[in-house]
Amino acid sequence: METTNVNDYEPGVLRVFQSKEETKAFYNKIAGVYDLLSEHAERPMREKGLAMLSAQPGENILEIGFGTGHCLVNLAKSVGAEGRVYGIDISERMVALADELMARESLSDRVELSCDDAEFLPYRSESPDAIFASFTLEFFDTPKLPEVFKEWKRVFNPGGRLAVVSL
């Protein structure tokens, strides 16, 4: 029996009670105004995370939960024509908006987008050199995080880097 009472868990450990379907529906609904909502609050922190990741020419980078795609642009420019950026997001509308942005920025040839669940990555083992996730971890239920990180680790190249921007 699954517990849904927050008081039944470790004090101070918050649970995520919104289902993936609810999260997906919410982001599909707000996709068109997401940049307006997040620009001032999230952009400076995303930029610091990208700087810490320090994507290099020729690298393969995976962004988890890319939203409207602004970090994908930065990553694609950083890896250059010899690199590749993969992105996964649960929202079809976010994928569509990011795809349009990649086309406008003439970066579609370097970026491969997927609408999927980042708990089960559709990538082969040891594929990206780095993973970037900003404002994404908070959507995975706390008890699931070890499984999520195990899956993310599975796809890393040995010695890969992880940059997480989170609440």
Got a strand count? 5
Architecture (CATH level 2) name? 3-Layer(aba) Sandwich
CATH topology: Rossmann fold
Q: What general outline do the C-alpha atoms trace?
A: globular
Strand-pairing-aware structural class: alpha/beta
CATH class term = Alpha Beta
Count of structural domains: 1
Task: Determine the strand fraction and express it as a percent band.
Answer: 15-25%
Low-confidence stretches: none
Q: How many DSSP H or I helices?
A: 5
Q: Round the Cα radius of gyration to an integer and report it.
A: 16 Å
Explain this structure to me?
- The chain has 167 residues and is an alpha/beta fold.
- The protein has one domain (16-165): Rossmann fold.
- The protein contains five helices and five strands; from the N terminus they run H-H-E-H-E-H-E-E-H-E.
- The protein has a five-stranded parallel sheet, covered by helices on one side.
- Helix 4 links the parallel strand 2 and strand 3.
- It starts with 19 loop residues before the first helix and ends with a strand.
- The model has no long low-confidence stretch (mean pLDDT 86).
